[in-house]
């Protein structure tokens, strides 16, 4: 049904009109008549004209549904058979009625949710948007530096999958991660960095395909831009990939096996991967992509989940500031934390974590300091010597705001 900005009053047939009136045949002079408004909840699709001017008695109180009633309204040129040819020719700027606009928006939302559910149904939920921050308790520098360093991090993650068909989607995952290290050193060395701010922009994009009800695979390209944003150049770009084979053992257990490759600034990095999504029972679950991340979760109630979280990652950042140009920073850490996640409203969650950062290092190397291969935590041909002094491991705390969609 289309209405125009031009036109005259039209008669809209075939709608159910629900009012607070009862006796439609009452024309008593003492009663006050009124005309009902057209309701568009249901078109009963008949063209039977029962009354042209439906007069309702305002003195009668019971609800009454009047079918097949022709109602005169202020709508213009709806495109129904009652419209004349002259009025149809007068249509210039068609618009949608408000109820239809809301209907289209509702259908679009249902399509999006259905798409995400069908395409990523191997998971129990998907975190569409995550915004979080991490701060560490000040940690002492190693000898010969005197002072303490404080590390903080800003994280933004957005997932945007696109469906091709029932078996194939194009998966997109955008992550920004910014690390900042400050300190209270009074006299800072000039031959290496102590305070620093590093930025990582990582895109995972590629095909996720379902082979059959139990098997599938993922092939993702993973370009990264890793820099201090100070005179950076094309060498700040890194190219990587992820390949995973998926197998669902049963309704509660799904696994993936594969590897991650990235051309780091120190050389090639290859990490064997095992993904696990295991709903042990109604309370306990284990999910994660090992050795990068893992969560052991316990569902306390409908609004609260708590448990243990592991996160370990290796990254390298190109330096652009003039005195250290072409050097790079290698960051390693393994964060072991306890977490609690609250469902605050609808699909919005707040997650807090508190724990300890192990093996945390920021090592500065010259551009030509390389190794043959790094296989997860095992290094081959690594004869590098870092130019800087590190600070100790320490306690960390984080808060995250998450928009998540349940998939089961």
Keywords, separated by commas or semicolons:
disordered N terminus, 55% strand, globular, 7% helix, 14-stranded antiparallel β-barrel, two-stranded antiparallel ribbon, mainly beta, 408 residues
Question: Mind explaining what this structure looks like?
Answer:
This protein is mainly β and 408 residues long. It is built from two helices and 22 strands. The strands form three sheets. It has a 14-stranded antiparallel beta barrel with strand order 5-7-9-10-11-12-13-14-15-16-17-18-19-22. Strands 1-4 form a two-stranded antiparallel ribbon.
Quick structural summary:
The strands form three sheets. The chain has a 14-stranded antiparallel β-barrel with strand order 5-7-9-10-11-12-13-14-15-16-17-18-19-22. It has a two-stranded antiparallel ribbon with strand order 1-4. Helices cover 7% and strands 55% of the residues.
């Amino acid at each position: 049904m289309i209405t125009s900005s031009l036109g005259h009053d039209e008669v809209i047939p075939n709608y159910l009109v629900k009012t607070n009136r009862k006796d439609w045949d009452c024309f008593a002079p003492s009663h006050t008549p009124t005309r009902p408004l057209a309701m568009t909840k249901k078109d009963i699709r008949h063209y039977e004209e029962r009354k042209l001017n439906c007069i309702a008695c305002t003195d009668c109180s019971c609800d009454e549904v009047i079918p097949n009633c022709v109602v005169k309204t202020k709508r213009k040129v709806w495109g129904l058979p009652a419209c004349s040819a002259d009025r149809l020719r007068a249509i210039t700027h068609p618009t949608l009625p408000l109820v239809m606009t809301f209907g289209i928006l509702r259908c679009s939302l249902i399509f999006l949710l259905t798409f995400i559910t069908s395409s990523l149904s191997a998971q129990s939920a998907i975190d569409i948007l995550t915004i979080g921050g991490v701060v560490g308790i000040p940690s002492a520098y190693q000898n010969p530096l005197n002072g303490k360093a404080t590390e903080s991090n800003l994280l933004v993650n957005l997932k945007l999958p696109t469906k091709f068909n029932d078996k194939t989607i194009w998966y997109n995952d955008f992550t920004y991660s910014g690390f900042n290290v400050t300190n209270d050193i009074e006299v800072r060395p000039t031959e290496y960095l102590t305070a620093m701010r590093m930025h990582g922009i990582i895109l995972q994009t590629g095909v996720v395909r379902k082979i059959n009800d139990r098997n599938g695979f993922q092939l993702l390209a993973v370009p990264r831009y890793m820099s201090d944003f100070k005179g950076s150049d094309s060498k700040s770009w890194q190219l990587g990939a992820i390949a995973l084979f998926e197998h669902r053992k049963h309704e509660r257990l799904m696994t993936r096996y594969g590897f991650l490759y990235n051309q780091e600034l120190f050389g090639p990095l290859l990490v064997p991967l095992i993904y696990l999504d295991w709903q042990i029972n109604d309370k306990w679950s284990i999910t994660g992509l090992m050795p990068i991340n893992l969560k052991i979760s316990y569902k306390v109630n409908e609004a609260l989940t708590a448990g243990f979280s592991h996160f370990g990652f290796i990254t390298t950042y190109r330096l652009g500031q003039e005195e250290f140009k072409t050097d790079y920073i290698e960051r390693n850490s393994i964060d072991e934390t306890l977490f609690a996640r609250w469902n605050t409203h609808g699909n919005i969650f707040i997650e807090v974590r508190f724990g300890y950062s192990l093996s945390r290092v920021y090592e500065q190397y010259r551009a030509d300091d390389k190794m043959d291969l790094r296989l997860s935590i095992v290094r081959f041909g690594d004869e590098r010597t870092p130019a800087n002094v590190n600070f100790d491991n320490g306690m960390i705390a984080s808060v995250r705001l998450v928009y998540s969609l349940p998939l089961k």
